[in-house]
Structure formats: structure tokens, C-alpha cells
Amino acid sequence: MKITDVECHVLLAPNYDPSFTSSAQDSFLVILRTDEGLIGIGECDVNPWIAKACIEAPGTHTMGLCIKDMLIGADADDIAGIWRRLYVGTAMNGRRGAVVHAISAIDMALWDLRGKARGEPVYKLLGTPRPDPVIPYASLQPAGHGFEAYRDALCESAERARNLGFRAVKTEVTMNGPYAHSGLRESYDRHTEVVAAVRKAVGPAMTLMVDVQYLWDDAATAAAVAKDWAEFDLYFLETPIWPDYLDEYAKLAELLPMPIAAGEWLATRYEFEDLMDRGRIGVAQPDVGRVGGLSEALAVCRMAADRSLAVVPHCWKTGVSISATAHLAFATPHCPFIEYLPPQLCVETLRRELAAEDLEFVDGTIAPPTKPGFGVALNWDAVKAFKVA
Prior knowledge:
The protein is α/β, with parallel strands linked by helices. 37% of the residues lie in helices and 16% in strands. The strands form 4 sheets. It has an 8-stranded parallel beta sheet. The protein has a 3-stranded antiparallel beta sheet with strand order 1-2-3. Helix 6 (188-202) links the parallel strand 5 and strand 6. The two termini are 28 Å apart.
């Protein structure tokens, strides 16, 4: 099965808000076409115009080859070989960052093709499927431009998630720092108030996670605030410190009662090795649309297992990436939860309209998918309507 064409689609919802901290407002979609008439669908989570350039830019020397040129004519089932050739052939363009993020979409599409060619869901091709279902957690979204509106929107979203049957939720609590919602500059005490309010809204039985989006620069400042959050029984605290400060992560891991989760931005297993061994995180969060695709996410999962760490994949994107993330989880026994952006709770147009996933949400769990590949059904009308490049 040879690859005959590589289509790159830059998608943007017309109602996007550049002040949002939400990459689900845009998408970079890759379609791999083959000589057998099958297509593979992939997506990555990076600026879509940059991703398009990473794949289509012509090469001028052996260390900076064109990804699209390397793919045309390649055996689509040689996933490991293709990944290696792309990584080595583009090494001078970027062994981390945007180039690897773009390769994520290619790798995802290749796995989708393999599943379709073999008539099997992808997770069955990744190893022994886990015997238990996958538990998604609902990612809650704030609203408003003041403290009360922010707090109340999160509590309302949490209650809706509970009523929908979710067993776990993750709330953003970011009213300061580099990614503060709507430019808020609230005290750290106010952050504690929000965590307390969300915990009260969902009750004691629901699993609660908190994402503060790189709120602090050092372990001492973070610990002074988050140590008081022990009473809220948090499953993890996500990205408390800027990701380059690995030594501060290690210090914080010694100071806090809850595990620290991180890794959403990382590219390749090599960055995760540093995060796990030097940063001493408790929960690894590879994103299949950033780390290098499903292949590299699997490598990260194996590394986490070797270190007795849980994996809770990051995913803030459309049904394409959500599907790939679910298939990863169904092949990963030490993955207690996956991030899930429920269409009923989100405002992102692309999440609601671009793709329908083959995932059945019942009694707070996701049943194993049954369709070949990732089971994603693209809305081609939405692709046409939202394509800008």
C-alpha cells in the first residue's frame, strides 16, 4: 500500500477568540491517500500554518528534507521506518518542537491506515488490550471577565459534567500568571477559593484534578499555595511551574501531597525522560498530536510503566485526536483517565462539528471502539467551510 498524496488542511473556526487559551479553535488536518483507495486521517496540536510549512516546505539538503516528498511512494505500513526517516531527514529543521508536532499528524494518519487496511480498531494492533474500560475526565471551561463569573462558570460546568455521568473532572484554575483567563490578576487565595467551590459543586466522590497552566516560577511559591489544597483530595496538580524548570518540579514533588502532572507540550520520548527522571513528576501527559504521534506516545507509556508512573494523556482538540488518545488508552493498562473535551460542555466549533468519533460514553466510561482504524467520521462539509489554507 503506497502513499500517493499528502493533503494538508489548515482549519480555523470563524468565531475563534484569540484571547482564549484554547487550541481547539483551530486544527491542522492531514489526509494520506494510497494506491488502494484508503485514506488515513491525522491531526496535530500546533499552529496549523506552521505545521503545513513543516510538511510542505521544500528540502535543500540531506539534513533538511521535505516531509511530503519523503512520504510520496512510501509503504504506508512501514510506520516505524517512516517515522525514523522523517525524524532523521528533518533533523536540522527541528528535532523537537513544531517539526515533531507536525510528524504527529502523519504518524496518526499512518496508524489509521494500518487499522483500516487490516479491518481492526487501532488499539488491537498496539498490544494486549486492557480488560477494563477507559474513564474519561471532563475538562471544564471558565467564562466571564471577573472572579465571580469565572468561579460560577466552572462550578456550573462541573455540575453539568456530573449530571452527564462523568466520574472525573479537571478544572482550570488560572486567574494569574502567563495564561490568566481574560487577563485576570487575582490573588492566590482566590485560586484556593475556586478549587474549594468546584470540589463542593461535584461532591466528595468525584475525582477532581486541577490545571493551573504554569502559574508559578518556583517550587517555594507553588508549595506555599498548593499545600493547602490537600483537603480537596486532588488526583493531580497539572503544570504548576514553567516546563523548563525541571529542578523546581523535582523540589515541588517533595513538598506537595498530590502528584504533579506534566508533559502536554513535550516532543519525543527524550524530553519525557528528562521530565520523569529529573523533574520527578507523578503523572505523564503525552499528547498524541504533539509528542510525535501514537508511536512516540506508546514509547512514553512504556517509559512511564518502567518507572511505575501513571499516564493520563493530554488532548485538547477535535474528535480526531480524541479518538487516537482513546485507542492509546485502550492499549495502556496504567492509564487511569484520558482527557475528554465533551461537545456538550465546550464552545469550540471545530470540536463540535469537524469529526464524529467511534466512542460510546456509557455510565462514566468509554466502551472499546469497534470500527477499523480510529473510527473517525470526518464532516467534509466542515473541512471545506473552515479551511483557510
